[in-house]
Design a protein that fits this description.
This protein is α/β, with parallel strands linked by helices. The chain contains 16 helices and 24 strands. The protein has three domains: about 240 residues, Metallo-beta-lactamase, Chain A (4-Layer Sandwich), CATH 3.60.15.10; about 100 residues, 3-Layer(aba) Sandwich (Oxidized Rhodanese, domain 1), CATH 3.40.250; about 100 residues, Rhodanese-like domain (Oxidized Rhodanese, domain 1, 3-Layer(aba) Sandwich), CATH 3.40.250.
Length: about 450
Amino acid sequence: MFVQQFFVKGIAHSSYLLGGPKHCAIVDPRRDVEIYLRAAKDRGVKISHILETHLHADFISGHLDLAKETGARIVAPKSAGCAFSHEAVAEGDTITIDDMVIRVLETPGHTPEHVSYVVTDTSRSDQPVGVFCGDTLFVGDVGRPDLFPNQAQELADKLYHSLHDKLMALPDHCEVYPAHGAGSLCGRAMAAKRRSTIGYERLANPALQIQDKQAFIRSLTSNMPPAPDHFSRCSAINGQGPALVSGLPKAKALQGKEFFQKSQSAEYVVIDTRTYDAFGGQHVPGAYHIDLVGNFATFSGWVVPPEKHILLVVTKAEEAATAVKWLRRVGLDNVAGYLDGGMLGWARQGLPAAQVSQLPVRVLQERAESADKPLLLDVRAVGEFAGGHLPGAINIPAPDLRTRYKELDKNRAYCLMCPSGFRSSLGISLLLQKGFTKLFNLMGGTAAVKAVGMEMVT
């Protein structure tokens, strides 16, 4: 038996190749499946199965693309009611791949239809060696049950039993292979380590230390981080069957005037993927600013309307392909094209451009006592803000500015801040769309604040 893990930064997603001497399964595949084809070829095994633990909420799965490429059988929870051709499995079902026997455990809680796959390598032992537990159990955390708001209490109750009655009944040596790691919003506080064992999680996982069921339910249904918008869409897309990547159109290189004309249509949106200082220097009016070097997929899925056609601004053409890949991972398939020649070409054609003032932290320091200082708008998450913020700052998380802009005065000047300057620049782009004009981006964010020794309060 062989296990190879594939980790996608940004969405912090783990998928796996579970291999025997001749065949292998891919567990919870990402949408761009070439990496699995190469890995199987390198090991000299055939991909015979695709195992889905649940209908993923935070990304679009590659199960249909992978099945088309390999002819592999898709295995998914029976309770998911998937609309595509697959083998539907339930509690106690088994799958055999070479010397491996894979037993199905129904482990609902994170989602209603969740299953886990317990693997026994019969060539070595009759004891389970590992469990692919999807988003039920993480390293240092457990799956959040609040993604279905009307079912949160019920799912938290089921999660408790899935963990304590099923997964914790596995032997301590059994390895834990979760579908996410630190950085994912499918849990609250995952550890950086990407694998574990049942025994170690029993010993050290904070959520598993809560033995009282009602206390466990309260813990998992309160003070959870916000869920991005695409979390409410991806599960249904995965269950229905995503569009095949091979059938999606390629993003075209668009000349400035054509790009501008399309950007004026209500059917299109512009995403500027450059760094915040480049966006501040000049950008297409009305563009979303979501930097490619940050958490591009999550924030794109969070704030970009899925029904719109997307136009990209990139620094170089190769970045357009990267942006398209990330957007497709969160179900944004309608990329119409990218700006050929970038903003330098745009400027040469005399097309309209907007700017954002970038405020160095030392200038903010100097203005701290002045009458014309801008109001500080901290766009970090509520928990980040509570952990330490500048005196007098107000807190509205960046994605919430789409609706909570109504709480702000358009005649006031605001300095937006986040940990670095990227998320605050996203917030500025959202406020610009709503007609705000007096906006500053704090360069370097809270990192710069700490570097110059400005006082933070909790």
